[in-house]
Amino acid sequence: MQQLPYQLSEQLTEQLEQAVNEFRKLDDSPIRIITHLDADGLSSAAILAKAFQGEKKKFAISAVKQLDENKIREFARENYKTIFFIDLGSGYLNLIEETLSKKKIFILDHHIPDKKSAREDIIHINPHLFESKEDALNLSGSGVVYLFAKKLNSKNKALAHISLIGTIGDLHDLKGPTQEIIDDSVASGEIEITTGLRMFGTQTKPIINILRYSTDPYIPGVTGSEQGTLAFLKEVGIESQKNGKPIRIIDLEEEQKKKLVTGIILKRMGSEKDPEDILGTIYLLKKEPEGSPTKDIKEFATLLNACGRLEKASIGIATCMGSETAKSKALQVLQDYKQELISTMNWFHQNKENPISVMERGGLVLINAEDKIKDTMIGTLASILANSNIYPESTILISMAQTIDEKTKISIRIVNGKNSKKKDVREIIGSILKKIGEGISGGHSSASGALIPQEKEKAFISAALEMFK
Ligand SMILES: [Mn+2]
């Protein structure tokens, strides 16, 4: 049965048209673009930059981790008459209205707005305002920006694949309005869609690592075991290396790939989940070389996230815009990021038994890295531990590290968070901060974070330990 093409709601279409009309009224002065630091935000910025170049508009981009009052006040002091907030902004409508009253504001976002309607002269496009709830969950920031760019000039359809990178970086379900972006990416000849093993890293990672560290899908007897992985590969007749070079999934012959898939399905027989749930849709960028971290869109999104985390946003944006120089720099950033990740994990494993660095209390593991690991890695460390089997399910993980400006960054996660809906980590961190009477927090129920003054570290630790006594 043929699927009917998805129709954007009339309201959203109207709002996009209105945004374009307002954009046409702008004079030639340069435009300020403020975006989010993740894959979705960086690809949003790349799309808007390309679209502005097409309109001969000058612009300046900044990528931020999050908005706050201080940052918005800084933007107020700048000379720009027009500001575009992309992949962020909707949660700060009150502050933006208050602080940026003299500027023309465009907000193209998909985060939950802090109020239903913005001041009349603010252009605010957000699927939460128009679409059904399900649809709202299926449009990313770069999706909104792409739809705007396409409305501005149909030539911008050639940018659909950039939006797909951000979308895949941000969303799990590609349906509803996102279908239009996928269709445009295929039509422009940039994207090729195939079906294959849905594990991460099929283009670049050694097969032995992919299998051994595969938690989703989980492979009984293989996941978590080097020996099990080697035995399994032997069983299906696949070697883990050739001429001293590790074999990747893309290196396998078709026959070998089939054997691998069948082998995994057999291993998963009897597990409660659908054993065949190991295949998925794979989106490849046609023009990127095989085996590059820019070939598979999922890996490209990781490359962008690495650029964001290591504060190299402009490299990520320029890579999306097609610069080869930026791309080779981005590949280096990815290497640096991996190195950072390895030293972070090494530090953790060396200090796991050290009661000063890693404190365990009924249901809580508190990791205090001080200045031993980068504050930008603290969330990633907590997330990796939350998805591994080192600590029992539902354990609360708190990790903390010092920033260069004398603050302490805190991340909080829950082991196997998908299954344990009972605990809300944002509430936990909120009540600890309340006890020490300082700090700011944010995030959502399964992943949250906070920032406190460094001198409050001790107070924070005792309050947390007290809570789990
Ligand atoms: Mn986003």
Q: Main sheet, how many strands, which sense, barrel?
A: 6 strands, mixed
Give the low-pLDDT segments: none
Terminal residue distance: 58 Å
Helix content: 40-55%
Class by alpha and beta content: alpha/beta
In the CATH hierarchy, the third-tier topology of the domain at 1-152 and 310-351 is known as: inorganic pyrophosphatase (n-terminal core)
Could you characterize what this model shows?
- This protein is α/β, with parallel strands linked by helices.
- Among the domains are: about 1-150 and about 310-350, inorganic pyrophosphatase (n-terminal core); about 355-465, Roll (Diaminopimelate Epimerase, Chain A, domain 1), CATH 3.10.310.
- It has helices spanning about 10-25, 40-55, 70-75, 95-100, 125-130, 135, 140-150, 160-170, 180-185, 205-210, 225-235, 255-270, 295-310, 315-320, 325-350, 380-385, 425-435, 455-465, and strands at about 30-35, 60-65, 80-85, 105-110, 125, 190-195, 240, 245, 280-285, 360, 365-370, 395-400, 405-415, 440-445, 445-455.
- The strands form four sheets. The protein has a six-stranded mixed sheet with strand order 10-11-12-13-15-14. A five-stranded parallel sheet has the order 2-1-3-4-5. A two-stranded antiparallel sheet has the order 6-9.
- Helix 2 packs across helix 13, helix 7 (about 140-150) runs antiparallel to helix 8 and helix 8 (about 160-170) packs across helix 9 (about 180-185).
- It starts with 9 loop residues before the first helix and ends with a helix.
